[in-house]
């Protein structure tokens, strides 16, 4: 890959290769080998963009004592968490790098978070050899029972909302005391509540987004992952695709809901970074960019430089894997950017990525594999992200092919990932020692997607999917595990209890007046909306719950609770009607 004359090489040789650790890929068969050889399994779960993963390579796994212990008694397994969503979801609470030690039967003995220096690592490895019983880091998993209800109870909702507000940092903005980042579900919840008239929620969103601008690279654009030290001034410089995509979406939403165009400027800086650094020649999107120019060396001084000075020193490595999950997230973000600002380029970028993923990652039945060659899978995250992207594309283009693909993806998810508790992160493999489990963020996204898809199709199966995911999320155990991070559940609950705004533009798609009305609907509608364009020449809309007349002049209708407004013929009239609806 070449950007402005700078060539990105492949991964550099790593310290563990020099030290001679024979790292293996993850597979369920690894435990058969462990039994046969009477060895423990050491899983190093990290990421190509992760600074402390590089440090652990250079320091810990290059240490002679650590190396000797691993060679003697362990099978060493290395996994890039971006490549394995199932393992990433299982151990996400342990950060990267995560170190997990298993017994020969696949049971966990040790789970450790973050960088482990050489001496403590050697002591840990020896302690497991001396006493192979689960340590204090391996606590029994809580027993989760699905809620009997598909929405939150009133008292439960109030308690979650209060905990969310208490966790807010009124001085600096954001949630939590140590790491500051742009938490997209929390921001969307505040923006949505603020649009409905909650001034305190709007203030929280505005303060956080304003402070979070410090995480946008002032030279290249793009969002750094987070800042440490409880403030916004100590960023970690990796640029990971979910942060880019979701923050484009949230910034676009803030601009649209507050009618403040300046937020689009920050979203465009992120989009510019994607275009310049993370877009493949065919239009699909890469995965991430490393935090370090030299692996393991902190890059604070580097990112303080301007463009030319940075390029003289080199450019941090780009992970050129193309995953369906990451592309689905970008498609959704770019669709939101187009809706808020009418940027035609962003929607063309979204279309190109969607078409590439359909051509190169599609599975029979409407699902998607993760990468070019999946070691396992399929994974829920890939089909779910693409399903959300397809529905977003239908909303902003009114091209019915995208809605059809969203329906196919929903059917694939129901048939492959439905479990007793919500939807599992991967399809169950017979005999696998680690059984797939549901993950909260994925079930939040699925509940919201399936509920909005139901609004578009009227099909009971889609509402049933949403309710099944929500019963898992409403479990008091799940809520308790998430702490203040329940904003996504509150969003899903709000949407399952609320009929979405339904705007239909009636008129030819080649009619400038109809186009102007459609644009006004995209820019002014509430966050959860069903926006459609009915051109009689294309036949009935996918859901025929409203019968629209043939008109001589393009018009828009706003429908809710079984009734529709009179026809509106001007964008201004439609925008004002939608503003009143939000209030």
Structure description:
The protein has 583 residues and is α+β, with helices and mostly antiparallel strands. The protein folds into three domains: 14-130, Glutaredoxin (3-Layer(aba) Sandwich), CATH 3.40.30; 154-496, Glycosyltransferase, CATH 1.50.10; 501-582, Glutaredoxin, CATH 3.40.30. Helix content is 48%, strand content 10%. It is built from 23 helices and 15 strands. The strands form five sheets. It has a four-stranded mixed sheet with strand order 4-3-5-6.
What distinguishing features does this structure have?
583 residues, alpha+beta, Glutaredoxin, Glycosyltransferase, 3 domains, four-stranded mixed sheet, 23 helices, disordered N terminus
Helices and strands in order, then pairings?
Blueprint: E1 2-3, E2 6-7, H1 15-19, H2 30-37, E3 40-46, H3 51-60, H4 64-73, E4 74-80, H5 85-90, E5 98-102, E6 108-113, H6 118-130, H7 154-166, H8 184-195, H9 199-212, E7 226-227, E8 235-236, E9 239-240, H10 241-258, H11 262-277, E10 288-289, H12 300-303, H13 307-313, E11 318-319, H14 324-341, H15 344-361, H16 380-397, H17 400-417, H18 440-457, H19 460-473, H20 476-482, H21 487-496, E12 501-506, H22 512-524, E13 529-534, E14 555-560, E15 563-564, H23 571-582
Parallel strand pairs: 3-4, 12-13
Antiparallel strand pairs: 1-2, 3-5, 5-6, 7-8, 9-10, 10-11, 12-14, 14-15
Largest sheet: 4 strands, mixed
Alpha-beta content class: alpha+beta
Give the overall average pLDDT.
Answer: 92
Q: What is the count of structural domains?
A: 3
What CATH architecture of the largest domain would you give? Alpha/alpha barrel
Helix content: 40-55%
Oligomer: single chain
| CATH fold title of the largest domain | Glycosyltransferase
Low-confidence stretches: 1-19
Gyration radius over CA: 25 Å
Main CATH class of the largest domain: Mainly Alpha
Distance between the amino and carboxyl termini: 49 Å
């Amino acid at each position: 890959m070449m950007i402005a004359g700078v060539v990105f090489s492949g991964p550099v040789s790593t310290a563990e290769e020099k030290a001679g650790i024979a790292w293996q890929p993850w597979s369920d068969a690894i435990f058969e080998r462990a039994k046969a050889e009477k060895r423990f399994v050491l899983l190093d779960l990290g990421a190509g963009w992760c600074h402390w993963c590089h440090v652990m390579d250079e320091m810990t796994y290059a240490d002679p004592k650590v190396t000797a212990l691993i060679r003697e008694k362990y099978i060493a397994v290395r996994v890039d968490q971006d490549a394995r969503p199932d393992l990433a979801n299982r151990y996400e609470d342990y950060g990267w790098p995560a170190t997990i030690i298993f017994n020969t039967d696949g049971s966990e003995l040790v789970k450790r978070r973050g960088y482990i220096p050489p001496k403590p690592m050697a002591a840990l490895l020896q302690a497991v050899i001396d006493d192979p019983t689960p340590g204090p880091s391996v606590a029994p998993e809580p027993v989760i029972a699905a809620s009997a209800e598909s929405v939150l109870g009133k008292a439960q909702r109030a308690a979650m909302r209060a905990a969310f507000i208490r966790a807010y940092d009124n001085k600096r903005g954001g949630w939590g005391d140590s790491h500051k980042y742009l938490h997209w579900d929390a921001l969307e919840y505040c923006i949505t509540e603020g649009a409905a008239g909650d001034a305190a929620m709007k203030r929280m969103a505005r303060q956080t987004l304003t402070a979070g601008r410090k995480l946008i690279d002032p030279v290249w654009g793009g969002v750094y992952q987070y800042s440490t030290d409880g403030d916004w001034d100590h960023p970690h410089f990796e640029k990971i695709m979910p942060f880019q995509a979701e923050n484009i979406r949230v910034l676009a939403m803030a601009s649209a809901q507050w009618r403040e165009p300046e937020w689009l400027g920050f979203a465009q800086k992120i989009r510019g970074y994607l275009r310049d650094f993370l877009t493949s020649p065919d239009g699909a999107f890469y995965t991430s960019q490393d935090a370090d120019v030299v692996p393991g060396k902190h890059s604070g001084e580097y990112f303080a430089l301007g463009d030319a000075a940075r390029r003289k020193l080199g450019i941090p490595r780009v992970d050129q894997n193309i995953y369906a999950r990451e592309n689905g997230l970008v498609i959704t973000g770019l669709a939101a950017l187009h809706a808020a600002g009418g940027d035609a380029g962003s929607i063309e970028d979204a279309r190109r990525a969607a078409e590439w993923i359909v051509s190169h990652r599609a599975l029979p039945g409407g699902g998607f594999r993760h990468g070019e060659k999946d070691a396992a899978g399929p994974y829920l995250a890939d089909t779910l992200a693409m399903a959300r992207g397809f529905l977003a594309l239908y909303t902003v283009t009114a091209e019915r092919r995208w809605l059809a693909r969203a329906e196919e993806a929903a059917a694939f998810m129901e048939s492959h990932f439905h479990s007793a508790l919500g939807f599992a992160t991967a399809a169950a493999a017979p005999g696998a020692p680690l059984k797939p489990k549901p993950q909260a963020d994925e079930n939040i996204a699925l509940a919201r997607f399936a509920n909005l898809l139901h609004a578009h199709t009227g099909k009971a199966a889609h509402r049933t999917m949403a309710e099944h995911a929500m019963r898992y999320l409403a479990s008091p155990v799940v809520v308790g595990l998430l702490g203040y991070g329940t904003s996504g559940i509150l969003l899903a609950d709000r949407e399952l209890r609320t009929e979405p705004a339904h705007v239909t533009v009636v008129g030819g798609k080649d009619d400038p007046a109809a186009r102007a009305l459609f644009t006004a609907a995209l820019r002014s509608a509430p966050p959860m909306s069903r926006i459609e364009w009915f051109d009689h020449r294309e036949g009935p809309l996918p859901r025929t719950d409203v019968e629209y007349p043939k008109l001589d002049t393009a018009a828009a209708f706003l429908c809710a609770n079984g009734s529709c407004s009179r026809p509106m013929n001007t964008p201004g009239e439609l925008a004002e009607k939608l503003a009143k609806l939000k209030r």
